[in-house]
Amino acid sequence: MAKISNGAIDKKDHSNGNNKKDTLAIEEFAADRQGFLTKILTDFEDHLIERTRHFLGYHVNLDFNHLMDLSPLLRFHINNVGDPFKDSNFGLHSKRFEVSVLDWFAQLWEIEKDESWGYVTNGGTEGNFQGLLLGRELLPDGMLYTSRESHYSIFKAARMFRMDCVIIRTVTTGEIDYSDLREKLCLNKDKPAIINLNIGTTFKGGFDNLDLVIKTLEECGFSNDRFYIHCDAALYGLASPFLDEQGPIFSFKKSIGSVSVSGHKLLCSSMPCGVHMTRKKYITAISKSIEYINTLDNTISGSRNGHASIFMWYSLNVKGRLGLQQDVKKCLMNAQYLRDRLKDEGISSMLNEMSFVVVFERPPNREFIKHWNLSCEGNMTHVVVMPHVTVKMLEDFVNDFVREKNIWYGCGQIQPPCLAEEIGTSNCCCSIHGKRGLQNGK
């Protein structure tokens, strides 16, 4: 990769065309330009292979070799502009695949096909934008309520749509603090409520309880026509029916307005994508007929990646519900394995029930973080145990962490961080709480 970042392409980018030597250096490849480009791409492919072997810190499933079957379609431009359920004059689209994907999710999330509307997005952020935009258009003077551990796209949407945003405290698990929600709802009874519900927070994998939120709204005097709930289910939207024996964590049978899920997370895709779904009666609030494309414009992005719909359709058919259920079971078991291994080694760690996200102490070494593709927040980091993550990868990671930890803290000049406040005293193995746990026989 160093060859790429220091090569002729980067030099051209920074020269603004004024460096004659660099320009000539590029022109030297004119006789074998294809060979030059192939070398650059081959080097980049090698880089991606190496990064994939140590990819642990983000919500992405890299197990998608089956998608190579779709490579012939990359010869075509496919644009699903406008409403998925309406044709347009732009003939190069894959809307029939998109509608099939939407029908599958409508069944998963328990809403009748003729009552649902949705589209394949470019990812979870776009799905969140679409959901909050609908909430604002339906309740123009509504206030947005969201927890402090919500995905950053929620706060970005609040700024873009100029929504009054009330931030709610969270408990140790990352779940919303319902007493704080109640208090802040009661302070603003005169304005409708637009609620962002986290079906798995980004960093800790904490689940907001839909039933408790609806109950809190009702007890604070908010009738169904005075609140709108958007569910950010980026990772767990596909997993939710398989996580709880009591039934799905969320459903359109309850008083929710919209859901967003990412397609490149649990399901897997070689490109960012997702699904936004809402109730059909709501979408008229933002639909507008556009003569130029001869269809309705009612999506955030307008022109949309038509390949993404095919990729999602193909993966759903290859895996099926049984395959997804097996992936969920594997992720849960491997996450528990990692949590237990970290605790056995005296490393502060936490795993929420029904979660794939193992939170633990942040390594003090930047190179280690980069090597394992970890994401960090304060004194914490996490591993997101996705279907591509094997027990061997996790064992290699723990062994590497323990080996490096002996170097980081061996001299005694620095100590592992205390995470009692972030993940709870019982999960903290620092010099204070770790000893206390041993004294209590833990």
UniProtKB/TrEMBL annotation:
SUPFAM superfamilies per the UniProt record, alphabetical: PLP-dependent transferases
Cited Pfam families: Pyridoxal_deC (PF00282)
Transmembrane segments: none
Keyword annotations of the record: Decarboxylase, Lyase, Pyridoxal phosphate
Keyword Lyase included in the entry's annotation: yes
InterPro entries: Group_II_Decarboxylase, PyrdxlP-dep_de-COase, PyrdxlP-dep_Trfase, PyrdxlP-dep_Trfase_major, PyrdxlP-dep_Trfase_small
Cofactors demanded by this protein: pyridoxal 5'-phosphate
Top-level lineage group: Eukaryota
The family this protein is said to belong to: Belongs to the group II decarboxylase family.
Protein name per UniProt: Histidine decarboxylase
